[in-house]
C-alpha cells in the first residue's frame, strides 16, 4: 500500500468539497513541517553540534533562553518569511510580532509558535516539541502591516494547529479542524508519513499530569480534585490514579491524545492573571487538538478556545483531556 504522506494528505484535504485547506494553507503547513524537520536535525546533533546549553539571555517571559530556543525560532522565521502565505508571525521568543517584511509578498495567514516547548528538557535528552497555531489575518488588515491586535483572536478562530514532537520518534500532529492526524518522520524517505488518525482520546484512563510542587497556588477546587485522586489512602478513587509529569507540554499532551488522561496547569488563584502557560501559542493550539480528538479544554470557566486574548504573551490556567475528568474537575467548582 502506498504511504499517505503529509503532502498527499494535504492535497486530498484541499480537494474536498468542504475543504478547510486552500492552497495557501497547504503551503504554509508544508513549510512549517519542513522547518520542524530542520529543527529535529539540529536537536539530534546535541553536543556534537554545539547546540546544547543556555545563551545567557532571557526572553520576554523572563525565562533563560536555550541556544536551541533561538536556533529554532530563526529556522521558523526564515522558512516562513518569503513564501507569500503569511501576513505575520508571533513567537514565544520574540517580544513583538514579526510582520512579513515589505520585500516579500504577503498572504492572508498569521502563524504563532512556541519554537521549542519544554526546552529545559533539551540538555537531558528528553522530549521537546514545536507548537504552532494558524489564524487568518482580519479582513481590515488588508493593505497595511499587521499589528499585535490582529493576533488577539479567540482560539475558536484557528484554522489549523499542531505540534512536532522530538522524542524517540519525530512526529507531526496536526488538525485542520476536521480531526487530528499523526505523521511520523521517515528519515529514509525524507517525508512525513501518516501513522495514526483520526485520533480519539481513549476514555477512562486514570492518569493525571500536574506539577505537584505548585500546590500552594491551586484553588481549593483543584486541590479537592487532585486530593481525591492522588496520594490519598481513603475515598472512592483511592489507589486508582497514576501521576505523570514530563515538564514538556508537548510530551504530556501527546501522551493524553494517544493514551488518555488529563493535563492541568492551573492559574495561581491568589494572583489573578498569574499562570504558567501562554494562551496564543500553547493553550489555544493544544486545546484545538484536544477538542478535535473528542476531549475538552477549560480555563476553569469556559472552553479555552472561547477565551478572549488581550495581549500577545498572555497566560492562562489550563485543563485539557478526557471530558469526564474535566467535568469532574468543574463539578468541584459548582
Ligand atoms: O512552556 C512551558 C512549559 O515548559 C511546558 O512545556 C510545561 O508543561 C511546563 O512549562 C513545565 O512547567 P514546570 O517548570 O512548572 O514543571
Ligand atoms: Mn512552551
UniProtKB/TrEMBL annotation:
Domain (Fructose-1-6-bisphosphatase class I N-terminal): residue spans on this chain: 4-195
SUPFAM superfamilies: Carbohydrate phosphatase
This protein's record includes keyword Protein biosynthesis: no
Binding site for substrate: 117-120, 211
Enzyme Commission number, as recorded: 3.1.3.11
Binding site residues for Mg(2+) 2: 114, 117, 282
Major localisation: cytoplasm
Cited Pfam families: FBPase, FBPase_C
Cofactor note: Binds 2 magnesium ions per subunit.
Molecular function terms from GO: fructose 1,6-bisphosphate 1-phosphatase activity; magnesium ion binding
GO annotation, biological process: fructose 1,6-bisphosphate metabolic process; fructose 6-phosphate metabolic process; fructose metabolic process; gluconeogenesis; sucrose biosynthetic process
Catalytic activity from the UniProt record: beta-D-fructose 1,6-bisphosphate + H2O = beta-D-fructose 6-phosphate + phosphate
Compartment list: Cytoplasm
Record's subunit section: Homotetramer.
Family (UniProt): Belongs to the FBPase class 1 family.
HAMAP family hit by this protein: FBPase_class1
Protein name, as recorded: Fructose-1,6-bisphosphatase class 1
Organism (species): Novosphingobium pentaromativorans US6-1
Phylogenetic classification of the source organism: Bacteria, Pseudomonadati, Pseudomonadota, Alphaproteobacteria, Sphingomonadales
